[in-house]
Amino acid sequence: MNNSPRALSRITQAVATALVAMAAGQALAVDVQATAFEKRFATQYKKIKDPANGYFSQEGIPYHSPETLIVEAPDYGHETTSEAYSFWIWLEAYHGRYTGDWGPLKKAWANMEKYMIPSVSDQPTNSFYNAAKPASYAGEYPLPKDYPAPLDFSAPVGQDPIAAELETAYGTRNIYGMHWLMDVDNWYGYGKCGDGVTRAAFINTFQRGAQESVWETVPHPSCDTFRWGRNGGSQGFLSLFTGDANYSKQWRYTNAPDADARAVEAMYWANIWAKEQGKAAEIADIVKSASKMGDYLRYSMFDKYFKKIGNCVGGPYSCQAGTGQTGGNGLRDNQHYLLSWYYSWGGATDTNAGWAWRIGSSHNHFGYQNPMAAWVLSTQADFKPKSPSGAGDWGKSLTRQIEFYRWLQSAEGGIAGGATNSWGGSYATPPNGTPTFYGMFYEEAPVYHDPESNTWFGFQAWSMFRVAEYYYATGDAKAKAVLDKWIPWASANVKFKDNGNYTIPSTLEWTGQPDTWNPNSPGANASLHVKVTKSNADVGITAALARTLIYYGVKANDAASKTLAKKLLDAMWTNAKDDMGLSVAEKRDDYLRFDDAYDAGTGTGVYIPSGWVGTNAQGATIDSNTTFLSMRPKYKQDPDWPKLQAYLNGGKSPKWRYHRFWAQADAAMAMLDYARLIETP
């Protein structure tokens, strides 16, 4: 690693002073002696932290984007995600590395704890949680029209083996993990637990199967007190999602494991750099908090209903409940040891109601894996969790994750989708010949199908950066073997134009399947293929790709990777720089779905069951005629609405420029990575 005193002293005092000043909102003055990439970081960091650019709310919360009219996983720009928080923490770790000022990092973590991790009052009934029966079973279904999913209280569920040790280790039954989505400005109007007015309110959207895209979601409060939702009954929004004889007011949160793992990853580097500066004590408390977050993150390693891992077929009654006990192979029978798509927890709002629940997830996407975080939590003394099995679980996860990448690597080098322990979300039996990974079934597009989750190149760059980072830190030959094949494939699909601009892959197409995994003799996956079908110049993914090339290039001494990283970063800086950071023009043809009515033939549009009529906090009626737009009438007040309205009226597809927080942070860090590892080795 580049931790020498010479490397540290290379950063001029003037740059450090300037960065500290900009954090306080003062004017930026960058030392002319700073390297080109140090100056770029300083410039980009200032733009992100400049209040005039609107990246943060009045509470200091990072918005998903300063722009409000944007629809992707968040359906409004002034929502935020645990993803954005993790990138903010990461960015401030880099700031501390180059300035010695750890104040902004401490503020970022404190803000995350205050707003994004549910407080004691937000999760009030965990004391009633029963680890012997973590949750009642409800199947998943292919289409939103198949919902609500009936609760089946008789279907066997497994046992939660980590609840007791977490309670003992931390003295609480409350969960220490981020909920994934927040309505920062209370744009929807639900407020906190139905009060209608509190800002920074937890909400949720996706609830109804793999086909439910953002265009078909029904946004609802994470704490449903029945103030809104179905009219004329005590159901709130719950009866859209689950079928029950009696509905109870309740709170429910969902964790996005990749974000919590990224926060741990960021804190590892912060701890390394603070120690080099003799300032480790300044961030020691949040290092402990990152370790704690990693301990709870293990919930994402379990089957959704804690059932046995592998060949879990025949439906929820045939698939056996897991005991949570460790077998002769040293593994728990209901733990897959991968970072799945989520873990969730909830309970009654009424403290006298006496129930709470927790679930993991059966679905594993390669894009969420983080071997760097697994290595940190299993081997680094400052990060080893307090629970007796925490570090050991992360060590097993590290091994399993690297194997997962190898199992899913195509003949060309790209990484395919993932695997599930619950075929169809209901422990069904897959088609004959479906390849397996430790008994879990290959899924070309895990979790969501509109668009298919394996088609976005961003998952490739994000996830393989973590592999490269882990390889850089450890020299693991197995990680290098995956990168040795992935790097040439990704590099060959980067194209530069005569005008100095460039494209990287954006959309992928997959054919074939991997070989069934044999850890003693991995297959060649000769029939699994990937093809790049679309390209663009997305700044966030460009940054992630460049960072992957940097870490691999430095560790493997690969000149071509280092050269390509610089060429990409130079081209992005030249062509995408604007007053707010970095952006490129985007066409969003999918915005035509704003006013799509439900189409039973295609399954597109917002499905609301016949006879279900309700209202939301924006005052919209929700019924079988509902559209994405009609459910969100405030969008017509957006300053960019006329531009979109003209498109919906038949005009040309407009171009949009977005400054997603994560992308701006990733670009800033890419510049510092190049400065730290290549400009000033």
UniProtKB/TrEMBL annotation:
Which GO molecular function terms does the record list? Answer: hydrolase activity
Residues of the signal sequence? 1-29
* Keywords, in A-Z order: Carbohydrate metabolism, Cellulose degradation, Glycosidase, Hydrolase, Polysaccharide degradation, Signal
| Protein name as annotated | Glycoside hydrolase family 48 protein
Q: Does the keyword Hydrolase apply?
A: yes
User: Which InterPro entries does the record associate with it?
Assistant: 6-hairpin_glycosidase_sf, 6hp_glycosidase-like_sf, Endo-1-4-beta-glucanase_dom2, Endoglucanase_F_dom3, Glyco_hydro_48F
Coiled coil located at which positions? none
One Pfam family matching this protein: Glyco_hydro_48
Can you name the source organism? Ideonella lacteola
